[in-house]
## 1
Amino acid sequence: MEKKQKKIVLFTSPGCKWCTVAKEYFKKNGLKFKQIDISKDTKAAQDCVKHGCRGVPVVLVGSRWICGFDQKAIEKALS
């Protein structure tokens, strides 16, 4: 039986280069993710700050918050 993918949420803002890199990484690897634009969702922006992230992208894998696009941390959180 195939292991179920952990839930991925990508917090982004318009014009964010690393947000685009993160989206391309998830798509290239066949990973499903939900994208939330923090410029339109103030609660999401507050959640990111509450978890120590001051900029975007922020990646939430399961219950693990990752500030910035850190491929190694994302791969570790998914395993």
## 2
Amino acid sequence: MAIVVAGEKQRSPLFAISATLVIALVVGVGAYYLFFSPAPAIEKIIVSQDLQSISQVSKVNIDTQAITESATYKTLVPKLPALQLSGYGRANPFLPF
């Protein structure tokens, strides 16, 4: 009786290299189109009204000093009492109970 031990066929490293290159190519092309490709022409031509109004709002300058020094602002009174800070938690939270 003869015992036949068949050795494993060794794969060619060509398959692993080509698969790695294909994956790297797909990731590279996806990254280019996601981050570096120019905007399509339709997006440059059509700008919605929402985007135009947002750009106008972003250009508004608010004078906070004029607001905080106005008589109306100074007449405002808080309706809630100030919070009292008390000791909370344990001095060493890692001690067992």
## 3
Amino acid sequence: MLRKQFKAMTLTAKFKKDIGTLRAAANQEIFLDVKHPKLYKKLVRYYQKEINLTGEDPDADYNAIMECVSEDLASVEV
């Protein structure tokens, strides 16, 4: 998936208080759109310019966003 890598604010900086929830969602322990719909909507807005979200297939959109979250979280883990 092609993504722009330059953001004004990183995922971990923008969603600092929700990192545990994002990790759980990235590890498929919870479904973010069901358990935390407001946070999911914020993530959609955060990634909408980076990836193509059609809105026609919610599962594909969710998977694309969670893939981005996983990549962003993996890039900051040591």
